Amino acid sequence: MGVVNATPDSFSDGGRTTEAAVEHARRLLADGADILDVGGESTRPGAAPVPADEEIARVVPVIRAIRADSAVPISIDTMKPEVARAAVAAGATMWNDVAALGHAPDSLATAAELGCEVVLMHMKGEPRTMQAAPAYEDVVAEVAEFLAERAATAMAAGVARERIWLDPGVGFGKHAIRHNLPLIAGLARIVDLGFPVLLGVSRKRFIAELDREAPPDQRLGGSIAAALAGVAAGAAAVRVHDVRETVQALRVWEAVAAARD
Ligand code: HH2
Fold first, then answer.
1. Residue 53: in which H helix or E strand, if any?
2. Catalytic choice (163, 174, 204, 205)
3. Which residue has the least CA distance to atom 11 on ligand 1?
4. Domains recognised in the chain with CATH numbers
């Protein structure tokens, strides 16, 4: 899954203008992305919320333009049901919700009605404050329990079981080292819940903690290492900024694994 940002304050992964975002999306497809994840609101720790109409104005033209010449699955990265609805009408096929359909009272009913695929991600707190002092007794057990409960709630609301994905939400209300690393290492516990698992580790802060405060554009090696660890533990997809390099890493890693059999 390649990241396409439709956020004017972002200078990477699209950002700035609709044209830049669409051009970036085409590059990711050429690089081998199987899914494109379009987002119009940053969820970085401390990021300010964006009103729904503004978010719709950012993402819909980008989704329409991608859909005009590609059948690629497109996911909309949003917490807002009205944005998901507009995105699906424009051609999105998946709702990637970092709030696991818990942000708005009508999120669950909207997901059921839209009938699209849904990513339920674990987040502790909300983006503005989530990194203040995250605490867990057993992070893997607590995240797995939360995701199992959200999947059951989504199914009870009418979301089809086969449309549900789960995501442990690396970096969302987690201590860089104490929580994110056990979650990646223990991902099989979440895979065991029986849904496809999406993992987002690309350029995240924990990589800087392990490598001399490397800035986001210098976290490629760590991003790939973490993505491979996730796939080894059973992740069905990885959300990444650097599609070409990740695809190459996965091809080599899988070829070596196949040669072993
Ligand atoms: N991480 C980010 C955004 N959306 N969605 C899922 N399902 N899983 C993730 O791990 C995930 C996500 C991080 O977003 P942000 O920090 O805003 O930056 P970017 O969108 O450039 O990755």
1. helix 52-69
2. 204
3. 200
4. 2-260 (3.20.20.20)
